[in-house]
Amino acid sequence: MARYLINIPSELQVSVFGSCEDLDDALHLSQVCRDLRMLFRTDRRRIERQIITSSHVYEYDFCLSKLLTKHEELAELYSKIGKRLPDGNKPSIKVFETCLSSKDDKEGLTKEEIQKIVIRWKHFSFLRGLYVDDDVFKEFDRFRAAFASGLTPEQGATIVSPGFDHASVEASHRHRVPKNRFAGDFKARFHKILCLHSMAIIGLHFAKISTVEPMATKPKPGEPDVAEMIDHLWIKEDATAGGKTTEFDPGTQVDGLEVFDFLYMFLLRKILPYQTLEFWLGNDIGDYPFEWRVAGVPNALELPEWYSFMHQCRQVLQPDDLRGLIQSRAWAAWQNGPPLQSMYMRVRGMFEHGDQNDLGFDWDRDFERCVMVRALSFADEDLSTGVEDPCWWDLLRLRLGSPFLEGSVYKYEDAIDEMQEDRRKEEKIKEERITKHRMMMSEVRMEE
Predict the structure, then answer these.
(1) Rounded distance, CA 189 to CA 170, Å?
(2) Are residues 164 and 256 in the same domain?
């Protein structure tokens, strides 16, 4: 193949590189021979732009790049001003809406944004590498199995071992992916979900601090509904309705839950185990937005407080933050966390309490596991007992394994279709009973 490829004009060679599905494929292609390696090195920026703007793998990166730019500006303000932004420094929610509406502006990507997408792909590849690492994956599966069986709070806090084996981290850095194990589209699906989770966390941050204009409460036709974006992370346009309505994509929702569990139910426990709670809170316990923040007593920081802290971390720590904490050896070089952990959490908006509901704007949607499970099941289930409690999704995950394994996506689709059909039948039977009861009551009244 290389012999024929190097004989065509260089412009066509660049086009071949640019038609690769992702950046890794282009890099692997460049290793075929010296000529292709030299071409790739010379035209790398042009090739990267072609891949990023044409491949479906990076469809959420455009919007995320805009959001991250604004989020970095907020981080700078936090580092200068304090734990909470004064009203004069809070951005308008229109900034967030503008970023969302730029999701298709592929040609408007600057060189800097392209470079950031390339770097983000490498960073997210690290998390993907951890997921496919044999040791980490086996531990995650053991955690999922035990979690689904229903544990006491004490057992749930200790089932995940803090920290990572050095060999696993190095293997993840080399992107070791076992052959014939994960689905062929695994990389793309995993990357997209990481982008969506990042967008949701940034969106929640904007929701807490942004100034809201009255017109923003009801989007105009064709404008993005920011509240909908935060509430339901995995929505796709319905082409049959002219793109004006949306419908849920169960396959993407399943992927989203799997990645959420891996990042925030599993990895976060390894990075911030129960034993490090007091270290992370330090003297700033009174500033954390918890119901128990008034206590401020070290010996009061027990399991309920740890679960509450973890819940707050899920809403402010993006996937790339978890990657940074792991690669910075948070469990070794920093011992329990980064220096100035209060500042670390401050620039991520941990100390913003979120009081936008006073303005009459519905921002009470959280980046929560129970919201995702409820959206996937299409049922008003009572999941208010806490995100740590197992539910039908955990039992399904235990039975079918990872949705990223080869062929698993069809098993999940069939199982969810069956579950939804059963619930439709239950609802129908319930409605028929109610109708029958009403008719009987009506007949009784008529006889009277």
Answers:
(1) 23
(2) yes
Contact between 257 and 404 (Cβ < 8 Å): no
pTM: 0.82
**436: exposed, middle or buried (Cβ count in 10 Å: 0-12, 13-18, 19+):** exposed
Q: Are residues 43 and 90 in the same domain?
A: no
> What is the SS3 assignment for 292-353?
CCCCCCHHHCCHHHHHHHHHHHHCCCCHHHHHHHHHCCCCCCCCCCCCCHHHHHHCCCCCCC
Question: How many domains, the chain?
Answer: 2
> How far out from the chain centre does Cα 5 lie?
39
One domain, residues 193 and 295: yes
pLDDT in tens, 83-134: 778 877 777 777 777 777 665 666 677 888 889 999 999 999 999 999 998 8
Alpha carbon distance 296, 303 (integer Å)? 15
Q: Does residue 188 fall inside a structural domain?
A: yes
pLDDT tens readout for residues 28-84: 888 888 888 888 888 888 888 888 888 889 988 888 888 888 888 888 888 888 777
CA distance 23 to 17: 9
